[in-house]
Amino acid sequence: MENYLVAMAVSAGIFALMALGLNVIWGMAGLINLGLVGFFAVGAYVSALLTIKLQLPIAIGIMAGTGVAAAVGAIVALVTVRLKGDYLAIVTLGFAEVVRIAAENEIWLTRGTDGISGIPQPLKSTLGSDFNLVYLIFCLVILAIVLFVLERMRTSPFGRVLRAIREDAQVAAFAGKNVLTFKVKAFAIGGALAGLAGALYAHYSSYIVPEIYVPLLTIYIFLALTAGGIGNNWGAVFGAFVVVFFLESTRFLVGVIPWLSAEQLAALREFLVGLGLLLVLFFRPRGLMPEPLPRLAKAKE
After folding, report:
1. pTM of the model
2. pLDDT tens digits along 22-36
């Protein structure tokens, strides 16, 4: 049971990194990105291939996965920068599917639907049974560092410009801000965080396969950010832990409702996740931890 709880916490930490990346793109800059799982896959495959085929250190693989995902995010932003709303969502969703299909068909590189196994795990032979707990601490430290940096960024001039673009890009442009540059930077940062999460997942599970990187994973991250509080970094982290806890706890419904088939149980779990989000939005429309509103200076009498 202890190992299961630790594994659940590691998954929540990885989800939280992705939610923070989405918060930069969507919560702060107002750009809809349904291709988050594509950056997650890029980070995982880059790190896995470099550490297996080139025998590079795990740290180099993780940094390379993060960097490549950031570069891909910048490229996607440059291609889609003039798209808005539904059009941007459709194109980014298509990007994620292109990554997944490429991973399925480029057998010479990714081993196709067989997946990549034997991805090195840091200090696994030395730590033994303590590996899961140490890896959880490692993920939480990275999450804390990322959260600290993003909180500083949120209150910086850069973060204020992103929120200005979210509210009205034309006004931000009239104020002299290069909207294109800021959008590209937001996509790059969000892609980097998703790539970092993908690399951490690959080295934790030691096995990746294209069927992991389906659009449903992106939907879960959107649920986490929406439930936690769009625009709030702390809300993104809290929402990720809540969603993972809810998803994992519903697995035990099989003991409560034993007459349901596996397919019916899966459908019930998805229904409960949706119902939970609706209840959160009904009672807390801005999320469990709403974005803090800026304080207005009092006018002098």
Report:
1. 0.92
2. 999 999 999 989 999
